[in-house]
Design brief:
- The chain is built from ten helices and no strands.
- By secondary structure, it is mainly alpha-helical.
- Helix 1 runs parallel beside helix 3 (45-54), helix 7 (127-140) crosses helix 9 and helix 7 crosses helix 10 (186-210).
């Protein structure tokens, strides 16, 4: 089997019983997004593919905020593959720097490969799928859907963002609606624009229905 087949099999097994918004199907969508972006962007294909497939192998939000588990698990797995140490190191750096983390996190590493995988992941957080994932995770955490007295919190630090437990609707304003302007690649920006507009339309409809307008 190819390194891609081996990685897919590993990820499917590892994420078999995780929360639905961060399961294999999320990984598969990010992988497809990354391949789509690779058509327009020049980058190391192997790093992008492994980064996309392994980026959520142990999301810190499901491991008491520990951000070291994911990169370690990814490296331990990659050590079983016939790939170079440079590729392994690059993929680990992608995983370490991909998260939103409140939007105020300064990346300690930059590369075209990270740009692509980050855009691919962020595209899956917006649009129709992003809406579905937001409510899936909110339900998983038993969070309030909407509370007009609870306002969105902006400019949170990385630690504040990790501990924050706001409403699902506020999450759109605190993160999802910000992603369009944080995209790295031109193709990513174009796709994000359409998905962003879809979320804006949904929020308008939602708030109109809350007020009994429609």
């Amino acid at each position: 089997m190819t390194y891609i087949d081996l990685t897919i099999n590993y990820v499917k097994k590892e994420l078999e019983n995780v929360e639905a918004g961060h399961d294999w199907f999320h990984i598969e969508r990010v992988y497809k997004n990354a391949l789509n972006l690779l058509k327009e962007e020049k980058a190391n294909e192997q790093v992008v593919i492994l980064g996309a497939l392994l980026h959520d192998i142990a999301d810190s939000k499901f491991h008491n905020g520990d951000e070291t588990i994911g990169p370690k698990k990814a490296l331990d797995f990659m050590n079983t593959l016939d790939i170079s140490d440079d590729v392994k190191d690059h993929v680990v750096k992608v995983i370490e720097n991909i998260s939103f983390k409140g939007g105020n996190f300064e990346r300690k590493f930059t590369s075209k490969e990270l740009d692509i995988v980050q855009d691919a992941d962020r595209l899956d957080a917006i649009g129709a799928i992003g809406i579905a994932r937001a409510f899936q995770y909110g339900g998983f955490k038993n969070r309030t859907i909407y509370n007009p007295e609870e306002k969105p919190k902006f400019n949170m630090t990385k630690e504040e963002y990790k501990k924050h437990e706001g409403t699902t609707i506020n999450h759109f304003y605190e993160k999802l609606l910000l992603l369009k302007d944080l995209m790295n690649t031109e193709t990513g920006k174009q796709i994000a624009q359409n998905r962003h507009e879809h979320m804006e339309g949904f929020l308008k409809q939602f708030l109109d229905e809350v007020e009994g307008v429609k």
